[in-house]
Amino acid sequence: MSPEIIFLFLIAIVAFLYASVGHGGASGYLALMVIFGISPLLMKPSALILNIFVSAIAFFQYYRQGHFKWKILFPFIITSIPLSFLGAKIQIDAHIYKIILALCLLLAILRLLGAFGKLLSDQTKEINLTLALIIGGIIGFISGMIGIGGGILLSPVLLLLHWANMKETAAVSAAFIFLNSLAGIAGAFSSLENISSQIFFWATVGIIGGTTGAFYGSSKFDNKILKYILSIVLIFACIKLVIT
Questions:
Q1: Is 96 exposed, middle or buried (0-12, 13-18, 19+ CB in 10 A)?
Q2: pLDDT by residue (tens digit) across 21-48?
Q3: How would residue 118 be classed by pLDDT, with cut points 50, 70 and 90?
Q4: Per-residue b/e over 177-209, b at no fewer than 16 CB within 10 Å?
Q5: What is the pLDDT of residue 59?
Q6: 116 CB burial (10 A radius; 0-12, 13-18, 19+)
């Protein structure tokens, strides 16, 4: 089997896994691009485009199942969208950031797996508006800089602070990723000429995988399964940050 076919197959798998928990999959696509030797110039804009398609599909599936709550999303996007746009224009040394983010994701994984007590609860709390605005801005800025939608960061926050349950988190994260990815694309407008010529094929398999994953995640999986799927997603992202 040719490397190109394997790459397409893996994009579909990443899209399925991420969309099942309301994510677009940018960190997964970036990891695959590194492994398969895709030019760094092509990676960020191409991953954001895939992110837009898959997160839109994930949002649609979770929305039609009644899991989306606008009041949860709104405080975060007020600050995340403009700061994602600004972050996309900034070039930073990624090494230190990757280490810090990997550690944060590791803590989130441990929390999801019950290392610090029970995480999932039927009881959710009202969002602290000021804290949500600050968190949204930070996530948006970081997301813009590294070319992701930010769902991998927002999901643990919503769950750890008990601001949403698992499926509400997936629905809100999908919308958050879609909007931030659009802002990131706008901020990185000058780099859009570097989109891979294979993006049509990548997007096609991403849409197939994302549609299937979002369907099963929004209507078939229970919260316990989603908890472990999200843990796998975070572990995958953590490994990617360490090895690249």
A1: exposed
A2: 788 888 778 878 877 878 777 777 888 8
A3: low
A4: bbbbbbbbbbbbeebeeebbeeeeebbebbbbb
A5: 92
A6: exposed
Gap between the terminal Cα atoms of the chain: 25
Distances (CA, A) of 73 to 53, 80, 136, 195: 19, 11, 9, 30
Question: In sequence order, which ranges of the chain are alpha helices (DSSP H)?
Answer: 3-19, 26-35, 40-64, 70-87, 94-112, 129-146, 151-160, 166-187, 199-219, 223-243
Rounded CA separation 239/237 (Å) = 6
Per DSSP, the three-state class of 127 is: coil
**Predicted TM-score of the model (pTM):** 0.80
The structure tokens listed for 85 are 């746009």
What mean pLDDT is reported for the chain?
81
Rounded-to-integer distance, Cα 72 and Cα 138, Å: 17
Residue 232 neighbours by CB under 8 Å, 6+ apart = 17
Give the other-Cβ count within 10 Å of 106's Cβ: 15
Alpha-carbon distance 69 to 133, whole Å? 17
- CB of 32 closer than 8 Å to CB of 228: no
3-state secondary structure of 93: coil
Q: How far apart are CA 136 and CA 144, in angstroms?
A: 12
